[in-house]
Amino acid sequence: MKQNLALNYDLNKILIQKNLSSVAYAAIDLKESYIGCYRNISSTKTVATVGSVNECSLECTDERNNMIALKNGEECNCIEKLDSAVASSQCDVICDNVDDCGGSHTYSVYKSKPRVMHDTYLSVKIRQTENIMMILPASFTLEMCAHFCFETNHTFFQTIKSGRCSCFQEHQITGGYVQEQICEKCKHDLNEVCECYHKNHQSKTTIFSTRSQYDFQRRVSTYSHCRNRNNGSYEITTNCPDGCDPGWRGDSCRERDCSSDGGDCPVGMKCIESTVNDENFVECVCPSGKVRNKWYQCEVFRMNIALHKPPYYSSLWPSGTVDGMYSKNQVYLTDGIHNGYFISHINDVMPAWMAVDLLNLYCVGFIKAYNRLAAVPQNVDRMNKFVVRLNETFDTTSKNDIRNQTNLCGYGPEKAIQSGNPMVVFCEDFTIFSRFVIIQQSDERLHEGVASLAELEVFEAGCDLFNGRCENKTCEEVKNGNRMVISCFDVYATTTANRNFSAAAANRNFSAAATVSIYITSTASTELLKTNLNVLWVILVLLVLPVIFAIWFFSKKKKKADKANELSSKYYGKDDLESATD
């Protein structure tokens, strides 16, 4: 199926190349094309050195995606996904021609050309019930609808009908179809796409996903924020007779205004004005140390430590594809695609597990599990209250019951949800060092042996999450290589010495766990061996330093005593010394 999709992408590139060639090679309008500054991207092509934003755009002309990301003043990336937005001021490195081109660890993202493919999810017979709807202008594009639904924080949108863009958070499907994607150009603008559907299913409604591939400039809204507009009415108007809602300005009330009501930014964000490519830029940003995620919330930046890590299973259904239902393969659990169509599936009643090997020890904070696409509610319910387990070591060939041989992280929701949105499980203990994350059905459903997931994401613990599970104690994060270790200490122990002692203890505990893992796990990585050697060096230093200090201290004390005796003999004379000894 993925090969078919890839072939489809290539065919679409050939079909649209003629229409897009003049646009792709046109100079980019930096003000209009700039999207924002980001910490994380997914690149389909990387060029080590370019001299400008336009040069990067040319490098990505033949890519199916329409966004580019520049880093550190020279690196160019053609990207298909992005997340973790930060203030544009963090993209503070310029290219040779003084364009804004990212930072040392951040990416300046631009729209380089019109979008030619969209994130199609599924074709269905019945339109979904909408949560929110916008009346689009006559010159609408499919991308306008995607941006509106994303701005209003909805996960899905569907085929535009009668100029109406409708968004919804969860889908209710009873059957669907997935085939090659076909996108048709707008009649009023042959450079833009107005409709996409799956091959042979044009008459059906296509569902699209917003969270993965889209983002847009937050300086300008997709709809007019007119004062006294009808509740629930969303559209673009040329003017607003009663003025703008607080936080907005301009004739159509679409420009964000930081001087009014904080620019209507969400709670926890701040409206700021900065200069990007010599132009004024307004955006809502998260506090220092946090990023804006795809759900328009602020959080500490974390990488998915399970991405592309090796998955293991107690059993496997043979790889295969069923149109509109699923495509099964063992690699899908950690491939970064969570649309619910590409799934991993087991087929045994005991021990009935699926797991990911993180290749190193981590303190796991939480996981995100994405369910399969299921037309039958019973298939969704298979993951009701699923169990997440952790362990330092794991015999992936064993057929024994593992429930009493692993550590518990936590449980999934009582009622599992459909594909497209994550089921988040926070671990009950942030101090457990784990290399393996294991998923099982609940004890009540374990006998079914038919667990399946589209994607498993794993993230490290941190003090920002429930105070690191330290309860009334103070939480401190200790870096150990590329891993984070949580340290808890009493509130009154606030001296530097106590904090250092606590940090050292956390490192010793982590290193000890790593050492045990080396001897127990035959597949332990060389990095753990390096950690073990570092521990030996630390122990050696801790033993030798006190000895050296003791020798130096007593030697110095002896010299002082000898000098005192010499001075004494000079002051009292030889006779006094002799009389004193009689």
TrEMBL record:
It is a single-pass membrane protein. It is found in: Membrane. Its main location: membrane. GO terms for molecular function: transmembrane signaling receptor activity. Residues 31-113 form the WSC domain. GO terms for cellular component: plasma membrane. The chain crosses the membrane at residues 535-554. GO terms for biological process: signal transduction. The keyword Transmembrane helix applies. It comes from the Eukaryota. Keywords: Glycoprotein, Membrane, Signal, Transmembrane, Transmembrane helix. PANTHER family: KREMEN PROTEIN (PTHR24269), PROTEIN SLG1 (PTHR24269:SF16). This is WSC domain-containing protein. The gene is 20199312.
